[in-house]
Write a structure and sequence with these properties.
The chain is α+β, with helices and mostly antiparallel strands and 205 residues long. It has three domains: 59 residues, OB fold (Dihydrolipoamide Acetyltransferase, E2P) (Beta Barrel), CATH 2.40.50; 70 residues, 5' to 3' exonuclease, C-terminal subdomain (DNA polymerase, domain 1), CATH 1.10.150.20; 53 residues, no CATH class. Helix content is 42%, strand content 20%. The chain has a five-stranded mixed barrel with strand order 1-2-3-5-4. A hairpin with a 2-residue loop joins β2 and β3. The longest helix is centred in the last third of the chain and has 17 residues. The radius of gyration is 17 Å and the shape is globular.
Length: 205
């Protein structure tokens, strides 16, 4: 089992990144490859899930260990494959997903790509009570954006990177136009913050 890959991030594509280590380039499938934009051409560590089947071996990559762990849990749900699990993780943060499971919010869960009411109920049945460790402590919950000083051109670049990530997920120019306006008004954040906020806005429209 390949637990993580650490090396130089050489390539970012719409659905994957390539990490070169010891002369070997590992293609790693990611929900939001552009989350790693800031690390391009630098050393990066990506938590990986080694998916093995008779006719397929793939590496799925995640920035955070809890994302990888949730991915593994989703694969245990009947009707959820790696593509479906990755699509879910590309749309929502772990605490938000866990909250929906614990509240049995099947209406919210059916907003994810490829998830119908039957699959949503199956996720609740299989996962409720098993993921509560990832629910944030209300008193210590991190805010979405940090409020430091950031040059306007750097913020604009981060918003641009987030918009490209959203387009890579299949959203149209028309859909992300509103999101860009809202993100430009938001407090300073990194690319991950803006992608997550953009997805939240798109799910409300």
């Amino acid at each position: 089992m390949i637990s993580y890959v650490k090396g130089q991030l050489t390539t970012i594509d719409e659905g994957s990144v390539i990490i070169e280590t010891n002369g070997i380039g590992y293609e790693i499938l990611c929900a939001n490859p552009f989350h790693f934009q800031d690390a391009l051409n630098n050393e990066v560590k990506i938590h990986t899930y080694h998916y093995i089947r008779e006719d397929n071996q793939s590496l799925y990559g995640f920035k955070k260990k809890e994302d990888k762990q949730l991915f593994a849990q989703l694969l245990n749900v009947s009707g959820i494959g790696p593509k479906g699990a990755l699509a879910i993780l590309g749309t929502v943060s772990v605490p938000e997903f866990v909250s929906a499971i614990e509240q049995e919010d099947d209406k919210y869960l059916t907003k994810f790509p490829g998830v119908g009411k039957k699959t949503a109920r199956q996720m609740i049945l299989d996962l409720k009570g098993k993921l509560v460790v990832w629910l944030p402590d209300e008193e210590n919950e991190d805010t979405l954006f940090y409020k430091d000083d950031l040059p306007s051109n750097e913020k604009r670049q981060r918003v641009d990177d987030a918009i490209e990530a959203l387009k890579a997920l299949g959203y149209t120019d028309k859909e992300v136009k509103f999101v860009r306006t809202e993100l430009e008004k938001a407090n300073n954040g990194n690319v991950d913050d803006y992608v997550r906020q953009g997805l939240q806005l798109l799910m409300k429209t």
